[in-house]
Specification:
The complex is a heterodimer of chains A (about 110) and B (about 950). With about 110 residues, chain A is of the alpha+beta class. Chain A has helices spanning about 10-20, 25-35, 45-60, 80-109; strands spanning about 25, 60-70, 75-80. Chain A has one domain (about 5-110): Arc Repressor Mutant, subunit A, CATH 1.10.10. Chain A is about 60% helix and about 15% strand. With about 950 residues, chain B is an alpha+beta fold. Classes of the chains: A alpha+beta (about 110), B alpha+beta (about 950).
Chain lengths: ~110, ~950
């Protein structure tokens, strides 16, 4: 199992923020979505996911709300705050720059 | 704007802990169940599905803890946790906590109390509207102005150089008309003692002359009635006064009906028109006022020294303080330039120029709070010195508690090691220790505030003892005192907590975790490093307390030196009281009659040996002086001496020896009275014909003739006068005249004085002053202080004295009834206060330092009991162990004393001005204090040393 914690800390945050940017989601669904969208390459460990969610909430990038889940249970849904949207945008462009730069280095050398 | 959410989120995790915990569990459970469903949907059996989900999830509790950690990045929760833990730790060692809190409370309380006084005396703003706009006029020049007279009521501190803050009324009026830079300009003078009657017994009150715009300039309103207004300035206006609030409450029981009532000030009937606002307690700090009177009654209600002068129109009499309110937008520099222009115009080119242009007179404006510093500048040095002393006390307290905490943290070494081993960060531990220190200091601060309230009360009582006035400054806590205490408390906690906090977590894990680490021989060397800091703290305490003790020693010796001065007369069993018949309307002749009458009646009282009177009581602080020219001396060589007019039998009553010549007789008084009367009628005539320029020589009149032909006034000189001015002459029979006034070189044409006797030297106004030449003359007018020589303690006579005085003259209030020794005590009040306060704090410092030493040595003995046991088992005598422990204590004390002596030498130099008869580096005081300190320290180290001697080697060795 590839451990996403091997990723840089900010990367997991970026994945989470991007994932819930579309609609509010609960933790389990976030993990599932990341896995399926990345074709099972990125498997988010729960031991990293929940602390990350709580930290992001603490920093007010995301907010949480209890709601009804798809199987009619109470689940905690996370959504982006206004500040979170801005933060996500900034982080995305950061990531673009970083990855294209890394790509350049890898291709050239 | 992220912080609202951040904060509310944090507060929620902090205070809704159980709810947050529940949600966390729910969230985890939901995830697991959702995974189980997913697994079942993928075809797993339910049992298998659950197990797989759990496996994938990992440790639920670990994830939860990490989530908690993610939220718990906040400072507040850590702090609360630290506080809770700290309180638990402190509760576990109540002895340590009590000693530490009490020590800190003493330090913080003393500082808060003294700072309250500094705040009240030096920092608090004036109780007027927008005090930062108020400025006081102040003039200075290169040479003294030609003034006919000047008087100051001590509103401004004495300056070096020429200049003060008194001006003439005409200049004030001109400035008020011309200065466009002020939104208000007013003047005041006083307060002076006024005889108020018509409200019960006649009493002396402090009356302040004010101009009509005084209240509007200050922005002060009345509580009831109306303030004085510009129309009250008109000489034809019915005389009106305003009462100060405190006086109204005190003398009129706060009766609202007082408005419209008439009373008599001296001999003038005035109407009370209002009572000032309660918060307007004073203008010049330290100078309380009872009534406000308009300048227009200044020629009717006047201090006795102003008999013959027209103060309201003479530009050569400078006596009022000017107070202006700057217009908005006008800088103090602009206003100052404008004021200087007006001042130069008046004093250089006016009717009676006071300056020559090369004198360069200028006006400076000072903000009222710092400009009206007459009273505060006198007690400021004492206050600052006391503040330094209590700051030292606080430092000692800090060092003391730091030492205790350090010893305690040594015993908590194992706890620290365990916490480090299971993963606590060193910074986190340091913070924990610091939190405990701040907790202690908060406890100390809270208790300290209580001590301060008590201390302020006690010091206030101490300060006003020996004077009939309450302490003239309002000492009450305000935001500044509060801020000070909070700051001191916080700083204290950090200061004494810093050393242990930095030391505490620096523990070597391995030896500390071993069972008997501290009693292993190797541990002693290891712990030695830590205890060098403890030693340093004790040394610091000893040094600081030595400095405080030496300061106290010098002040106590100063007081004793002053008390042991022989003032030249017998101070025992004398009752003093003052009366002033002239402000109650007596003529000079009636006054003299009254004095003779009183003298005889009082002398007839049982227990009274003799009675006399004088213009000032000796050693009361008041004095007057003048210059005379002795016949036969070179021209322009004048004898400047103090002057005191006295009654019959003054010298025998005061027991001042007659050295040559004869004493005053009734005939002398008659002659002096006649001469005085002639002088007065001449002056009265002169001021009638030529009121504005009485300095200009007029043609001699018949009255002048009568004056200059009256008999010379018989005078008696003291020994110093004879020695200084009349060396190698027989003083008896010598004739002298008054030195010319002002620039004139023509000697005074008056009859002059004839010396009839010489008496022994006495101190006059102050004990600290050197003995001055004194000229005693017969008292024939004005107020007097009576002296009753009794056979025993004279204070019991006071009641009889009051009866006799009220029989002899109605409407005559007695002032300052006290014994001569009380009078001297009052004179030495500041010295005594300082001596008492500094001794108290010196003893406190000594006790704290000894507690520190005792604590350190006790801890050492306890820690080394095994080592001591081994030493004893190997044959060491009890004496050797005693020497070992006491030796360590003495060594620390000697080092501390050496540092303290050096520091005290530097510090004491700043006290020189306060000392009398003792040098700042007085070896006796230094040696005495050092010996006292060493002896007390010896006792403090003897107790733990005895414990060391009682160590039973068997027990010590067995104890593992």
């Amino acid at each position: 199992m590839t451990k996403p914690t091997d990723l840089v800390q900010g990367t997991l945050d970026l994945l989470i923020l991007k994932t819930i940017a579309l609609e509010p989601m609960h933790g389990w669904a976030i993990a599932q979505r990341i896995r399926s969208v990345s074709n099972n390459v990125l498997q988010v460990n729960q031991g990293a996911l929940y602390p990350a969610l709580h930290r992001l909430e603490q920093q007010a990038w995301i907010q949480s709300k209890w709601g009804e889940s798809e199987n009619n249970r109470r689940a905690k849904y996370y959504s982006l705050t206004k500040a979170g949207q801005k933060y996500l945008k900034a982080e995305e462009s950061n990531w673009e720059r970083l990855s294209s730069a890394i790509g350049l280095v890898l291709k050239t050398v | 704007m992220r912080w609202p959410q951040t904060v509310s989120h944090r507060l929620r995790s902090l205070f809704r802990k159980s709810a947050v915990e529940g949600e966390l569990s729910d969230e985890m459970r939901f995830h697991l169940e959702r995974q189980v469903e997913e697994n079942i949907a993928a075809g797993m059996a339910p049992q298998e599905a659950r197990r797989a989900a759990m496996r994938e999830f990992g440790g639920v509790e670990q994830v939860k803890e990490e989530c908690r950690d993610a939220r718990r990045t906040n400072f507040l929760e850590n702090l609360l946790q630290d506080v809770r833990f700290g309180l638990r730790m402190l509760r576990k060692s109540p002895g340590f906590t009590a000693v530490a809190v009490l020590t800190l409370a003493l330090g913080i309380g003393a500082n808060t109390a003294i700072f309250s006084f500094i705040d009240a005396v030096l920092l608090r703003s004036l109780p007027v509207k927008d005090p930062q706009q108020l400025v006081v006029f102040h003039w200075s020049a290169r040479a003294n102005p030609k003034r006919q007279s000047q008087s100051s009521y001590g509103d401004c501190a004495d300056q070096t150089g020429v200049g003060d803050c008194s001006f003439s009324v005409p200049f004030f009026k001109t400035a008020r008309e011309q200065a466009g830079t002020f939104s208000g300009l007013s003047a005041f003078a006083g307060p002076l003692n006024v005889d108020l009657s018509g409200n019960g017994d006649a009493s002396i009150v402090r009356g302040l002359y004010i101009s009509g715009d005084f209240f509007s300039t200050l922005g002060v309103n009345t509580f009831i009635g109306r303030p004085l207004a510009p129309f009250d300035d008109s000489p034809s206006a019915p005389p009106a006064i305003v009462l100060n609030y405190a006086y109204w409450v005190r003398a009129f029981n706060a009766a609202p009906a007082v408005v419209g009532r008439t009373v008599r000030l001296d001999d003038t009937t005035v109407t009370i028109v209002g009572v000032a606002e309660p918060h307007f307690t004073h203008l010049t700090p330290g100078k309380p006022v009872d009534v406000f009177m308009p300048f227009s009654i200044a020629d009717r209600v006047r201090g006795e020294w102003w008999r013959r002068q027209d103060r309201l129109s003479d530009p050569a009499i400078w006596w009022v303080v000017m107070l202006g309110r700057l217009k908005p937008g006008v800088s103090i520099g602009q206003a100052q330039a404008a004021a200087t222009t007006i001042f130069r115009n008046e004093t250089l080119h006016g009717d009676a120029p006071a300056f020559k242009s090369e004198d360069a007179p200028v006006v400076t404006l000072r903000f009222a709070r710092s400009g009206l510093d007459g009273e505060t500048s006198q007690i400021a040095p004492a206050l600052y010195l006391t503040m330094v002393i209590v700051a030292f006390i606080l430092l000692i307290a800090c060092a003391n508690v730091a030492g205790l905490t350090l010893a305690r943290s040594a015993s908590r070494q194992k706890e620290m090691a365990v916490r480090l081993a299971i993963g606590a960060g060193r910074a986190r531990l340091a913070r924990q220790l610091l939190t405990e220190s701040v907790l202690l200091s908060c406890g100390g601060g809270a208790l300290g505030v209580l001590l301060a309230i008590w201390g302020v009360d006690a010091i206030g009582k101490l300060a006003s003892r020996g004077s009939d006035q309450p302490f003239p400054f309002t000492v009450a806590p305000d935001w500044r005192v509060l801020a000070f205490t909070v700051a001191v408390t916080g700083l204290t906690g950090i200061l004494f907590g810093l050393a242990p906090a930095l030391r505490g977590p620096r523990v070597d894990l391995t030896p500390s975790l071993k069972e008997n680490a501290s009693s292993l021989p190797g541990a002693a060397a290891h712990a030695g490093r830590r205890f060098r800091l403890g030693d340093a703290l004790v040394v610091a305490q000893v040094a600081l307390s030595l400095v405080v003790l030496i300061g106290a020693g010098l002040l106590v010796r100063t007081l004793r030196n002053l008390q042991e001065i022989n003032p030249g007369f017998d101070t025992q069993n004398i009752l003093l009281f003052g009366i002033n018949p002239s402000i109650a309307g007596y003529t000079d002749q009636q006054t003299q009659q009254l004095y003779t009458d009183l003298q005889q009646r009082l002398a007839a009282l049982p227990g009274v040996l003799s009675v006399s009177y004088s213009a000032d009581a000796l050693l009361s602080g008041g004095w007057s002086a003048g210059s005379v020219h002795v016949d036969g001396a070179p021209p322009k060589q004048y004898a400047n001496s103090a002057e005191l007019s006295v009654g019959l039998n003054f010298f025998s009553t005061m027991r001042i020896p007659m050295l040559a010549g004869r004493n005053f007789t009734s005939a002398d008084f008659a002659a002096a009275g006649a001469t005085n009367a002639a002088a007065k009628s001449r002056d009265a005539a002169a001021s009638k014909t030529n009121p504005a320029s009485s300095s200009a020589p007029a043609a001699p009149t018949a009255l002048d003739e009568a004056y200059s032909h009256s008999a010379p006034v018989p005078v008696i000189i003291n020994e110093t006068f004879a020695r200084k001015f009349l060396a190698n002459q027989n003083p008896i029979g010598l004739h002298m005249v008054n030195a010319p006034r002002g620039d004139s070189e023509v000697p005074d044409p008056g009859p002059g004085y004839t010396i009839i006797g010489v008496v022994g030297d006495t101190k006059y106004a102050q004990l600290r002053r050197e003995i001055r030449p004194i000229l005693f003359s017969p008292l024939v007018s004005n107020g007097a202080h009576f002296e009753l020589r009794a056979a025993a303690n004279p204070i019991a006579l006071a009641k009889n004295v009051r009866e006799i005085v009220s029989q002899a003259g109605d409407n005559l209030p007695l002032t300052d009834v006290r014994t001569q020794t009380e009078q001297i005590d009052q004179l030495l009040f500041q010295e005594r206060l300082m001596a008492r306060l500094s001794s108290f704090f010196g003893m406190l410092a000594l006790v704290l330092a000894c507690i520190g030493l005792y604590g350190l040595l006790s801890y050492e003995v306890a820690r080394r009991s095994r080592e001591l046991g081994i030493r004893m088992a190997l044959g060491a005598q009890r004496r050797d162990l005693l020497r070992l422990v006491v030796g360590q204590g003495i060594l620390l004390v000697l080092i501390g004393a050496a540092i303290g002596v050096a520091a005290a030498m530097c510090v004491a130099r700043f006290m020189t001005a306060m000392l009398f008869g003792v040098r700042a580096n007085d070896p006796a005081t230094f040696a005495g204090v050092a010996i006292l300190l060493t002896l007390v320290a010896l006792a403090a180290s003897y107790i733990p040393a005895r414990r060391a001697m009682r160590v039973d080697p068997i027990v010590a060795l067995r104890y593992e």
